[in-house]
């Protein structure tokens, strides 16, 4: 007997990826298009429709029972709309309705990309086996999602766990979100590089001024680069500890480009966490690097679809 499938969409500022996924999280068929994020909203939607067109035209499509979408945000799960910061042509864009126009009356679940990656890490990655977890993406921005009581907790709009906009510096720099001293304003890749440059670090001969270059300099012993990563780690630790104190998570899984710095980030982060996670019920909190890689968004979107799809022929909603 053929098991049922779900369709997954992973929508970001660079690419729109789609896949047909089985109940074990295996990607059976893929499609991808560039986002063309600076074009108008209909052009971007055209790329989504092309990806969906490849999926719906495939032989396994009749076995698809639900659609999951993980999108750059903000998203509004309750309304089915998206307003990705990095896709200016989409503001309150009715993505769920437009996807349904292609896929028919299948159930559609929309969540933010940080929530999707969290779902993937809980289902198959570094948070597997943990009933209460925080997933994080530390990259151009800082996002996240929550697993509570063994289940994905996207919240009413699909943005729950967005740790990047917890304020950890009450008098800190203004954040583009409108608040001050957000985790993202300190710990995202561009802000790690910005701080290092402001404190006197200079790129090498190749001119690379990204956080990855700062990480290489820190690994080589540059004190300014080290300090910039330590400040980022402190901000992350404060945000993680606050989240753990609020909802009693026991693990934080961190992915994204900045996490690729490895020990340059994780060593000061674990050290700083001891200073912030001080109450007895959060002292066992651990941090771990994400393990799902570039497929995390698709696997997480599939996990979201499994939550809403009919539980027949082996589609196991409890698996996510």
Q: What name does CATH use for the topology of the largest domain?
A: Nucleotidyltransferase, domain 5
Topology as a string of helices (H) and strands (E) = EEEHEEEHEHEEEHHHHEHEH
Structure class: alpha/beta
Helix content: 25-40%
Please report the first level of CATH classification, the CATH class of the largest domain.
Alpha Beta
User: How much of the polypeptide forms β-strand, as a percent range?
Assistant: 15-25%
What is the rounded Rg? 20 Å
CATH architecture of the largest domain: 2-Layer Sandwich
Mean pLDDT: 92
Count helical runs.
9
Q: Biggest sheet, open or closed, and with what strands and sense?
A: 5 strands, mixed
Poorly predicted segments: 311-320
Instruction: Tell me the domain tally.
Output: 2
Say how many strands there are.
12
**At the fourth CATH level, what is the homologous superfamily of the largest domain?**
ATPase, nucleotide binding domain
Write out the strand line-up for the largest beta sheet, numbering strands in chain order: 3-2-1-4-7
| Dominant shape | globular
What can you see in these coordinates?
The protein is built from nine helices and twelve strands. The chain has 320 residues and is an alpha/beta fold. The chain has two domains: 138 residues, 2-Layer Sandwich (Nucleotidyltransferase, domain 5), CATH 3.30.420.40; 164 residues, ATPase, nucleotide binding domain (Nucleotidyltransferase, domain 5), CATH 3.30.420.40. The strands form three sheets. Strands 3-2-1-4-7 form a five-stranded mixed β-sheet, sandwiched between helices. A five-stranded mixed β-sheet has the order 10-9-8-11-12, with helices on both faces. A two-stranded antiparallel ribbon has the order 5-6. A hairpin with a 2-residue loop joins strand 9 and strand 10. The longest helix is centred in the last third of the chain and has 25 residues. It is globular. It starts with a strand and ends in a 12-residue tail after the last helix. The C terminus is likely disordered.
């Amino acid at each position: 007997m053929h098991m049922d499938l779900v369709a997954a969409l992973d929508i970001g500022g660079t690419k729109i990826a789609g896949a047909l996924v089985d109940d074990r999280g295996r990607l059976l068929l893929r499609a991808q298009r560039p986002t063309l994020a600076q074009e108008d909203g209909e052009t971007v939607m055209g790329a989504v429709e092309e990806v969906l067109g490849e999926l719906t035209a495939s032989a396994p499509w009749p076995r698809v029972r639900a659609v999951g979408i993980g999108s750059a945000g903000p998203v509004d799960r309750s309304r089915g709309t998206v307003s990705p910061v990095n896709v200016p042509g989409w503001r309150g864009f009715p993505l769920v309705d437009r996807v349904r126009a292609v896929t028919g009356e299948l159930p559609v679940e929309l969540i933010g990309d940080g929530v999707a990656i969290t779902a993937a890490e809980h289902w198959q990655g570094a948070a597997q086996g943990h009933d209460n977890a925080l997933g994080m993406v530390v990259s151009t921005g800082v996002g996240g999602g929550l697993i509570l009581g063994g289940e994905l907790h996207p919240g009413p709009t699909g943005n729950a766990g967005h740790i990047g906009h917890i304020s950890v510096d009450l008098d800190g720099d203004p954040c583009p979100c409108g608040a001050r001293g957000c985790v993202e304003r300190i710990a995202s890749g561009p802000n790690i590089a910005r701080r290092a440059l402001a404190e006197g670090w200079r790129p090498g001969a190749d001119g690379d001024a990204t956080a990855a270059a700062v990480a290489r300099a820190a690994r080589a012993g540059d004190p300014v680069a080290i300090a910039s990563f330590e400040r980022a780690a402190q901000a992350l630790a404060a945000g993680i500890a606050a989240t753990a104190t609020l909802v009693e998570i026991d693990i934080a899984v961190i992915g994204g480009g900045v996490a690729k710095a490895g020990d340059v980030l994780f060593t000061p982060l674990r050290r700083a966490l001891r200073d912030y996670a001080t109450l007895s019920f959060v002292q066992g909190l651990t941090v771990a690097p994400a393990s799902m890689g570039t497929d995390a968004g698709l696997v997480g979107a599939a996990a979201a679809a499994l939550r809403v799809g009919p539980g027949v022929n082996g589609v196991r909603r409890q698996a996510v």
